[in-house]
Design goal:
This protein has nine helices and 13 strands. The chain is an alpha+beta fold. A hairpin with a 5-residue loop joins strand 12 and strand 13.
Length: about 300
């Protein structure tokens, strides 16, 4: 929940990161729940942005957490009232996606008042750890609730009823089905990617590649997400490659045969590439590293067909 435009400035600005002081003014042993939430963020989590003051407050878009939540000695260039702190909590963000139209907070509270009141009553958590409260028969933002939790039920209310695919705001109708689809797809892809990396023990499976730093690993689909919906969540439809080998596989520089050995593209343009000559070609016919769950052979065949690579 960001009220100001600067939001820290520079690389600490809006949609660049989440940040807060690590402790309250005057007490290094005391923090605030909505600040400590930052430390619970995991890489790949979805962050929905609520921005603006009073009648202008609206849900404006979402980002993806690029890092886990952490404590840092780095400082925002424009810390404002929070300049007193020595340590800060921070999460880097990426892939900010702006909604086609902002979703006004007042409209959200009005349209979903009864549902939100019921939602708050049914929460098992104490305190509720959400950005809003129900007081004096009205819903309102909780002062200081900078960063709060959001589950699937609350997200579906924010984006509008999935069955209706719209959020009604006066005479305007804002489509939300595409937003909802993208967020669900992102969540599914992140979970899949993590499971694939675990399957390969967080190591690039390309022959003789020694990269095992998670920051340089990608757990990606063999049969692409858009091409084969039946295999989207199937771990056997995934390979763990480093950034270089993932790009080479995606762009058809090489494929794998049914024995999980490297076979090369015959495309003349690819064969002229220095990357192909140095990092792919020397490993022809070599087998990828072992995984607990082997790659699905139908998916490998689908990839070979798409990249026009013959066994």
């Amino acid at each position: 929940m960001s009220r100001d435009e600067r939001h820290g400035g520079g690389e600490w600005g809006f949609a660049k990161c989440l940040w807060s002081p690590a402790y309250k003014r005057g007490s290094r042993k005391s923090s605030w729940l909505y600040w400590k939430n930052i430390l619970e963020v995991q890489q790949g989590d979805i962050v929905v942005h609520l921005r603006g003051k009073d009648d202008l407050a609206a849900f404006v878009g979402y980002s993806v957490a690029a890092t886990n939540g952490h404590k840092t000695l780095e400082r925002p260039p424009q810390a404002g009232n929070w300049n007193y702190a020595v340590n800060y909590f921070r999460v880097l963000l990426k892939d900010y996606q702006e909604f086609d139209k902002p979703i006004p907070l007042n409209t959200f509270f009005t349209v979903h008042k009864l549902e939100l009141m019921k939602y708050l009553k049914e929460l098992p958590e104490t305190p509720v750890n959400r950005f809003f409260v129900h007081q004096n028969n009205r819903l309102q933002c909780l002062n200081g609730a900078y960063f709060s939790k959001c589950d699937g039920k609350l997200l579906s209310l924010i984006l509008g009823n999935e069955a209706k695919n719209t959020l009604i705001s006066g005479n305007n109708v804002t489509p939300t089905s595409e937003i909802w689809r993208k967020i669900k797809q992102r969540i599914g892809q992140e979970r899949f990617s993590k499971a694939v990396k675990e399957n390969y023990k967080f190591k690039c499976c390309f022959p003789d590649c020694r990269i095992n730093d998670p920051k340089f690993l990608i757990g990606s689909h063999i049969a692409r997400w858009v091409d084969n919906s039946d295999k989207r969540g199937d771990i056997s439809n995934g390979l763990c490659f480093c950034v270089l080998h993932d790009k080479a596989f995606e762009n058809g520089y090489f494929a794998l045969d049914d024995d999980y050995c490297v076979i090369l593209s015959a495309d003349s343009n690819i064969q002229k590439s220095k990357t192909f000559a140095e990092h792919i070609k020397p490993f022809e016919h070599k087998k990828i590293d072992y995984a607990e769950i082997n790659p699905d052979k139908d998916s490998l065949k689908e990839h070979r067909f798409r990249c026009k690579i013959l066994v």
